[in-house]
């Protein structure tokens, strides 16, 4: 920036205060003020007619009357030369280009990475090459991942699934435990399982083991009802619950004289309390559909799991259950029910499994078969680690079908 020197010829008026420039900013302001206010337009070539007129007038002798100076006309706006192009600046280019969406379109900046294959030939090749050759997951792995996405779907609100049957000993409680543990494995929020079996249900024993349950404080659903008015937080509620990993359970009443006393109103009070803290609840209803609490359970259920077996009597009773529901005002529950056939007793080859499945599949939303597994058939502790892969896959399909029904 050129230095600005004071003009000695310009003296301040007498009495006026002396101004001193004490900073480079004031000096720069003075230099800017000294520049012309507007840029002189570049000379432009006049039109041919105007140029010839000027030449003609220059050859003639002006008269004295014409010596008066005509008022100056406003200068015509300058036109940019034809050979000069206006180049856009970097700022103009950035302003005119669309802003990329960093949230919804991350693929614009990061290349999508294939999922790592697990097991099989694809997994072996991936391990042998240190990840250099990634063929991606196979069909089976993709199906498993899709089941996991369906199970872990985020829910808005609280939902309840009732697991019931007309015949005991066909895998109802083991299905409740297996599906509950599967939901706890894949979902971000812990599920809750309620033992509403009027016949001294063993839901907690099947989830924890008989020994661990007896060593713990065996608080039951009756204890919860007695103190339900004082429960105002999940911390206070957890005192009446048992935990099998991330699966939270409410034990059924073991005293035969008290177990059948749970009414529909009492169950609805428990269901209302649970809905404030859990988005998914499973209710083990016991055998039959006519005991005291059953009307409250069906009234608050969002979908049903009907337990059945491959025995002829089990299949007939499952169909009878669906027919009873449809004829007593629960048509939607019957239509959207999930029938689970458990091969608990490993029936002989004389039983036509395909015929039984066809007999039940037309009157429900989905039918899922659970293969024979000693980890389920023994009637003892149910843990996912000891189950066959086929059994675990069946429980995943049931859990996914349950969450699909929550709308």
Annotate the secondary structure layout.
Blueprint: H1 24-34, H2 48-59, H3 90-96, H4 120-128, H5 139-151, E1 159-165, H6 172-186, E2 192-195, H7 203-208, H8 210-215, H9 221-226, H10 234-238, E3 242-244, E4 247-250, H11 256-259, H12 264-275, E5 280-287, H13 294-300, E6 303-309, H14 312-327, H15 331-335, E7 338-342, H16 353-361, E8 366-370, H17 374-377, H18 389-404
Parallel strand pairs: 1-5, 1-6, 2-4, 2-5, 6-7, 7-8
Antiparallel strand pairs: 3-4
Helix pairs in contact: 5-18, 6-18, 12-13, 14-16
Describe the structure.
The chain is built from 18 helices and 8 strands. It has 407 residues and is of the alpha/beta class. β3 and β4 (247-250) form a beta hairpin. α5 packs across α18 (389-404). The model is unreliable at 50-55 and 57-70 (pLDDT under 50).
Structural class: alpha/beta
Written as H for each helix and E for each strand, in order along the chain, the element string is HHHHHEHEHHHHEEHHEHEHHEHEHH
Tally of extended strands? 8
Helix content: 40-55%
Discrete helix count: 18
Q: Residue-averaged pLDDT, rounded?
A: 79
The stretches of 5 or more residues where confidence is low (pLDDT under 50) are 50-55, 57-70
Largest sheet: 8 strands, mixed
Task: State the separation between the terminal residues, measured CA to CA.
Answer: 73 Å
Q: Strand order of the main beta sheet, please?
A: 3-4-2-5-1-6-7-8
Shape: globular
What's the alpha carbon Rg, rounded to whole Å?
43 Å
